[in-house]
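Worked example 2:
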Amino acid sequence: MGSKLMELGVTVTNPFSCFASSKSPPFTFRCSVSLSSSSDHHHRASLGLAERPWKTLDARLVLEDGSIWRAKSFGASGTQVGEVVFNTSLTGYQEILTDPSYAGQFVLMTNPHIGNTGVNFDDEESMQCFLGGLVIRSLSISTSNWRCAETLGDYLAERNIMGIYDVDTRAITRRLRQDGSLIGVLSTEESKTDEELLELSHSWDIVGVDLISGVSCKTPYEWTDNTKSQWDFNTNGRDGNTFHVVAYDFGIKHNILRRLSSYGCKITVVPSTWPASETLKIKADGVLFSNGPGDPSAVPYAVETVKEILGKVPVFGICMGHQLLGQALGGTTFKMKFGHHGGNHPVRNLRSGHVEISAQNHNYAVDPASLPEGVEVTHVNLNDGSCAGLAYPAQDIMSLQYHPEASPGPHDSDNAFQEFIELMKRAKETLKHTR
């Protein structure tokens, strides 16, 4: 892992030489090749040698456990610290890059070949990239897709996001599965020693940090875009009714808003700190608590907002919103060993018995044993048995610990939006008959 000299025969002075020895047996060669590339460029220049026609190892990923992983860089340069998590999706790297829930994290893709479809501007899940960096095994040298607008490397460089490749992602994933998520430091700066980078990894933590405030919108706005006709689905059964939904932006993905809009919702998006009293003044038909990054226990103000709204209007929580609902109902959340990140997580709907293939991205979960009587666990992750959905019919509450707007199944979970529509419809009818 560190810079070493790999030798066959006797070490030679020039680390770039390979020659036959007159004192050695026939066809025996002595070779010395430096595995460190930090001074490769300057050394070759001083010798008057041409630049290598391939990229050399110019980046490091230093994990808090002391392991050092040398790699090649793409995208932005510099030094960045973050929590390293692995994602098992085979595709969809652009949605991952623009998912605000990855703020503060380095995403390692377990699928080895990344970048072959380039990037386009239709698949953005937010207005920018929020993750700290991208770690991949093999960066595609070409792109081939009819919607491709630019390469992955150019895309990351323009958005100041670091990436590394030609690193053993399989070995790192095994380490994360064994030891849990680890803090890491990505760096292309030769001036920083391994020890300095390791110290930086020990000085930073993601637990207890409010990451929501950094990804939420600052002022309310109206959302009007829906799913484009060529991509729309589940169009049968929509009765044309319009419901006004207030969506709390804890790091909301655009496709959540598109799906709600496609189901006939008028949507007002509000910041994470928007007072509950102002939301209730709007007299919306429902409230959505969105996905978002980090630790739900680090945002007690959001939990209080949820508490003030419960029982007054139907609510739907997704991912972070699900965890905040769990805490607001009196339950507790805990940090998982390495979380769920990927587009291939099986979830059982306990009400119907159906199994959905879901997209997930979270490091925290609700402890179902801590929930009060009357709160129903509606979905379970079949990989580890963790809580993947809640309902509290007495207060018109529903939530999911995964992304129903994503389409890995491809459309297994989209009916959750129809369920939210039905929840608002019943509440509206009940209110009409009580007046």
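The first helix runs from residue 40 to 46. The two ends are 72 Å apart (CA to CA).
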